[in-house]
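cron nightly-structures :: item 1 of 1
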Amino acid sequence: MDYYSILGINKNASPQEVKKAYKKACMKHHPDRGGSEEHFKKINEAYNVLSNSDKRNAYDNPQPNFNFNSSHFAHGHNPFGQGHPFEDMFRTSQTPRNRDITLAAGITLKDVLTGKSLIMQYRLHSGRTETVTVDIPKGAKHGDTIRYEGLGDDGNPRFPRGNLNVRIKVTSVKGWERDGDNLITKKSVNVFDLLLGCAIIVQTLDNKKVQIKIPKGTKPGQIFSINGYGAPNVNTGKSGNLYVSIETEIPNITDQSLLKEIESVRNKIYTKK
């Protein structure tokens, strides 16, 4: 198996180029995005070997009768998988490695619509500082974890580095809520427009403008649904719905003549029979 071809790099690629190619291949061929699970396993296997200097040297200079498909070299993981607190206890049949590192990546609900790249730095046990670019995909949810193999701690030089787990924390935006792939917001409309009907403009989180027609007689609390203006699904890319709840805006009228006119209208509507 040609690991260099799988990642789309040449044999002189630097460790940084290997990491970059691996991340790109994962995003493109992840099974949750329609990629082949078999090819995805090959990508992880290739990175597991080429990201480790000892394994890469052995791969580039193979010894007779040595099997590179053994479990010692073919240990790969889903970079989008969820970590488990007891994971390290069950590695007896796998290659020992250094501990994993978990970082929190803070984004806003607005960032969920567009995705975001963050540059993160963290210190390793050896004292070295690692710098990593974390690409958070559109539609990421609070609590999702992105896993980068081989970017964890390096405390024991005899073993490969652990993994880096980036846990996503989504902070809310005032006036907006998220329910799965749907977004929910409120819009105030004055009482006269509710009575007579009107058209309102709703500005979305990503600064798009959507027009909603409010029929006459619309009651406070009524919800309008707009297809395709919600949050994108991280796997399919398809956006959910935007739900707009209508609130009543009561004008502060101080003009006595206007108040008398309104009173007259009220009396005509609610005249006792």
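cron nightly-structures :: done
The chain has three domains: 1-79, 96-171, 176-253.
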